[in-house]
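User: two proteins, same treatment. go.

Assistant:
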Amino acid sequence: MESFLETFRNLDTSQKILYVFGGAAVTAVSLVAIRILTLKEEKRKDYPRDKVILHQIGRGPFAPSMTPFAVKLETYLRMARIPYQSQGASFNIFLWTIRRHNKKQTWNQGHGRHTEEEIVEMMNKDIQSLSDFVGRKRFLMGDEPSEADCSVFGMLSQTYWQFYGSGYENLIKDRYPNLASYCERMKDAFWPDWDQCITHGGTREATK
């Protein structure tokens, strides 16, 4: 079975960028499929009371998820100190969805109608604007993190840690050191168990 890393590497550069910055529709389709296929299984499980069950795809190779939206939500749950349990689903559904729907969904969204050069230009402008806004601040709004940081961190986590094979693996480290520090700061603040929540490039199972 083709691994997620192989599937991701086989996408062209523009598709990889679109996946990170415009993959909401793809993720939504994936989660709906996961929900349908796991519904019967869920009915047989006894989940703990007074705890959020976070349904998501399996853990990612270098960040806790391959979708920024799951990282955003899980970071928020940790920030708000809401008890939760992560419930992963099969990667196979997600792989199939990316292969079949990524180009169509991003085209329908509008992102996929641009050339690779245009997409890269938009990405660079977005990251530059964010870098300018953060400046020398520790977090978006100052010295303390806010809910907005969860959203931004979710998006940056993909570019900073998981943009392998795109030609932009070191984009943030090389051009935006303040955002690199920001990512590390958010990771240290809310993900002390980061290494347990990733698969280390698919070489081991995540234990959390």
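Protein 2:
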Amino acid sequence: MLCYAIVAIFSACLVVLFFPGRWQPNSATKSAQGLPIRVLNSHELSLYDGNEGSKGKDASLAFVTGDFTESGLTDDVSGLNPSQVVTLFDWLLFYKRTYQSVGLVAGRFYSKSGKPTAFLLHVESLLAQGQQLKAETEAEKLHFPSCNSQWSTTRGGMVWCSTSSGGIERSWTGVPRKLFSVGSSGSRCVCVEDPLAANKDPNLQEYDGCPTYAISCSLVA
């Protein structure tokens, strides 16, 4: 029951989390019903999270880290990278669909007058970066779907392509290649539609001992 209580408390915290203007259809001064949006202090927040008389807090960081200890229950998200900020934004969208917004929390993201802080603008810029990276990653997955793979102690590993490998339904099968991404020390197996064009891409590499047009490749342990 304690776990459920904790979830309920922090759910309420997130509902009145930071609401950047570009993150929601409401303005900084009007609600969806045209009413002024309230700016809540920590005491008022505690009334919404079910702990009247205790100190309410914005626990934004915990929704990304999963750290619900006292030190993890903080609104300091300065250590999050762009992709993690997107994850936090996804939580915000979830709670917006489920709960009614009761206002803005004065603190790290909003001033007492309800104005966005410099830190909020910084988080917004990270969100934009994260969403751009996510879009690029999704586009890459469509262009280079992941391979199917399996491994056994007796036969070793194998990667292969099909018309649905990587969860991408398509009309072509493709051939396996190693894809090296910028900034990553490793590679992942992807299916490429045109083997000859792939040979001209410096980020793509054939598997050792695997024929150029083979749709499956054995991996030596």
